[in-house]
Write a structure and sequence with these properties.
alpha/beta, 10 helices, 39% helix
Amino acid sequence: MTARMDTGNAPNVPVLMYHHVSPAGGMICTTPEHFSDQMAALARAGYTSLTATQFAAYLAGGTVPEKSVLITFDDGYLNNWVYAHPILQRHGMNAVLFAVTGWIGTGPCRPFFDPARPAASRPDAAAHGQPQDTLPPCPDHASCKAAIENGQADHVMARWEELSAMLRAGTFEVFSHTHTHTRWDKVCAQDPRAKRARIGEELQASQQALKKHLGVDAPHLCWPQGYFDADYLSAAQAAGFTHLYTTDPWGQNKPLNDPAHIYRFAVRNKPGDWLLRRIALTRHPRFGPWYHAFKAWKKKAKRRS
């Protein structure tokens, strides 16, 4: 956690949602330059990046620094290790990573980006002196999806050894994003019993993998594609998950809110000033709820048209 000198309790805690940090850019991807600028802006503005435990305690009625955020990443891509990890470390920030455990393989840690030196002369901190041009390729989202579908997940996903290294460094905590990222409500649309069974198996497999490889046994779960229904909720609760992360951006995470519906907003590939403005909107005690209500209404109206 980044220590800050503010007082009082946060009126609410915005939860930031990322997927990729990569020079490839494109869909749901923030470039290293913009991600670094965003983390630097948070630090300059006096924001604390919370751990999941601190955030859970806050939702239960506890106190956190007045300017607090929770930074989250979905899926567990290799670029989270190559780019997000060293940038977070440089700016004294930490994040939560929701890993699709069935996509995570094993092997030695690969090189990661050194943000402290010019690209032309930057030796790589994790590669024991290897030059910067040995960084592994970090393609765009569509290419990552294609690699996973073609059985080449290791080319685009982080490894257990890399996740463990980030845990030790304190840049990331790692929790469940299920085991295969499958929408069982779609696969088993005509068989509700099979749907419920597959969801339960999926969550159990994810928990077992996290426990085996990282020693992690925690009640935090992020829904694939942000989707959940009564069957998903029932299975998650039966598996011991209490803090459930959505892709719903139109609300505020306040003390004593329901931890089974945690709001998150997607961070765009924009400079740090944009992020500070977006956080100011979402966290404002009076204007924030109006903003969320208007945006939610506008989205529903667009769907009806």
